[in-house]
Amino acid sequence: MKLALFLYCSIIFIESVKADLIMVEVYGQPTTTKKVYSSNGKSWNECMAECYYAQSCVAAWKNGSTCYTFDYWLMGPITQTKEINESIVAFKVENKGGECPSGINPPTFGNKNATGSLYIDSDPKIAPVWVHYNIYYTKGSWKLNYKVDRICGEYEYDGFVSHADSTVTCSFVWYNENTGGFTYSEMKETCDEYSYGMAGFKYKEDVAMFEAKKYLVKIKDTRAYVRVDGIRTAACQKTPKTAYCMSEKDPTGRMTPSPFPGLFFYIRTPTMSPKLHISLLFLLLLIPNAQSSGYLEIRLKSPFLLNATVTITEDIYFPTNKRVFNVPLVPDHTRILTNVPVKFHRPGTVLINSGPVDKFGLHFATIRSDRWNTKQMIIAPDEMKLPFTGFRIDVKCDRNWHGPYCDKFCNDNHAKIINRRCTHNATLGCPLMLSGPNCDVPLLQTESTCPCVNHGYCVSEFLNPLDTVDRSICECGVGFEGEHCEEKEYDYADAIQFGMHGGPEKVFTEFFERSSVDNELRYLYH
């Protein structure tokens, strides 16, 4: 029997929290739009929003009916113009604690260069990168320089995988077919040379990634197998070199997560081919997990300058886990408080305090929203009370989590690699508008295909990852459920409570009754 030993090293990175970015407008005009992404029919606000939500975009410009969004590697010099030219460019820059640009040549803050950081993981075939950039002003133009930090370093990696705890593992594999293989010292020396760490299977996703490589499939010999040298039995810890402990009979051969630095063995008989072919095929990682993963997103709007605060608690009668956020509002601009972690299957409260409103003699006004169960939901009344003109709460799932309670895991990036998408059931399905074993048959939105109601959408679903036959199901929007989205979900949110405080009660009662306005954030238009 001949032994081929794999050396497996890895780097584990934590995905840093995304910088707080804003769009800052200047009077300017690009010197070139070559190869720049463009689209038509958008308003200026929609054009800026398109850049804001695009991971690699740093600037937006609208010329006539055409919106141009500039990726960091395509942005050339932006020539400064005057208001009379009616040409505006918006830069995406870091927001320094909510302050407005104060430099002579915006978007600078205190005459310092504007900066920004982009976390880019939109291409599932490429490991994530951080892009750090500066926007500086020189000789009548704004220019940009940037530095790219690659999560997996500058060397060619064998694979990478993201975990639910926001870490990313990059793997590097060496192998040989010498009888002796790598010694522990050689293993450590090789990993140290590249500043990597000796790796074991700490995460279930790591196991799935290694299995998805399908090394043995290429060998096409049923007598070949892979063993992972992990935590040994007590007997084999004492006598690791015995024939039993070096064979496939040792229980450590099972592919289970272990923090122990791993050695991967490929074992074959002498009659097998001397070549080992490595496949770089990824499969979808489906990880059963009982936990939920999601967040609150709160939008506020007012025609007045307000020093508002948002207090978020769990439970209602006996609040716990109290968190207070300062949310300064400027007239007629929507402010978004997002990525606030939330516990599902639990009640909770959001309390908005406007702070003083001198125009009306108000000490403060409040909005209170109680919910008796937390799941994917939208809380947005039809009407508001001044001094607020817009209010909305969205409970959303984190990336790769699905279902009403955000408790079903399906890796969206890995699904795309095999031309699939994750459904709301966290199962695999064809891309939207397609169906069939190869996802090449148009899926029509007709009553005969699947009669979805209440704006439900007909999609393809494979019940199991290895199924070759799909079925059509309805994906319901938030607020509806049932096989055809025919049932309205139970509304766990109480009616919004508005309050006003300060001044004579009669005056405020009269003002309160006359201060109703339409909620400008009841619906979001994209």
Please, could you describe this protein's structure?
By secondary structure, the chain is mainly beta. Among the domains are: 2-14 and 158-268, no CATH class; 294-398 and 491-518; 405-488, Laminin (Ribbon). Strand 9 and strand 10 form a beta hairpin. The chain is globular. The protein starts with a strand and ends in an 8-residue tail after the last strand.
Coarse shape:
globular
The main pleated sheet reads as:
9 strands, antiparallel
Number of helices: 7
Q: How helical, in percent, are the residues?
A: 10-25%
- Give the averaged pLDDT, no decimals: 77
Q: Could you give the order of strands across the largest sheet?
A: 3-5-4-7-2-6-10-9-8
Assign the structural class, choosing from mainly alpha, mainly beta, alpha/beta, alpha+beta, or little secondary structure.
mainly beta
Oligomer: single chain
Q: What amount of the residues lies in strands?
A: 35-45%
- Tally the beta strands: 36
Tell me the span between the first and last alpha carbons.
63 Å
User: Low-confidence runs (pLDDT<50, min 5 residues)?
Assistant: 1-7, 14-18, 177-181, 223-231, 248-290
User: Using only CA atoms, what is the Rg?
Assistant: 28 Å
Main location: membrane
Pfam family, one: DSL
InterPro entries: DSL, EGF, Lag2, PAN-3_domain
Keywords: Developmental protein, Disulfide bond, EGF-like domain, Membrane, Repeat, Signal, Transmembrane, Transmembrane helix
